[in-house]
Amino acid sequence: MQGLFDQVWFRIAEWLVFTLLLVALLLLIGVTVRRFVLERGGGAVECHLRAVGPRKGPWRMGFGRYGSDDLRWYRIFSLWPRPAAELSRRGLVVVGRRTPTPADLAELAPDVVVVEVGWAAADGSDPKEPVYELAMSESALTGFLSWLESMPPGTIWQS
Fold this sequence. Notes:
31% helix
């Protein structure tokens, strides 16, 4: 009787492991397909993001997708189809640029540049404190600055 009981538990454990592996594989496929769909139109760049100020949190790995009005930032390891953050292009200002600190290097690669961004005040003055920090490669930073300074054809900015 004991041998039969052991076989039943072994079968249950075997199916449980098989089911967990299948779920993990489906999640991996889902994340990969989501990223492919979001990046296929172009205008996407890998970058890390974190909020600054009183709610300063850890760096989050993801990618930004350039639009005509905003930069939409998506988490890499997520199935959620909507962006986790949207940085409006209107009034977006680079507050500062720096190399990663030793504390940052625990989460970032050493070859990235950290860019602090915020939005201009209603009177047009530059922000005093950044709202977000973006960490990206030099080439991605060049593209970001180009996107920030350019204006799509036919766009009329309201003042």
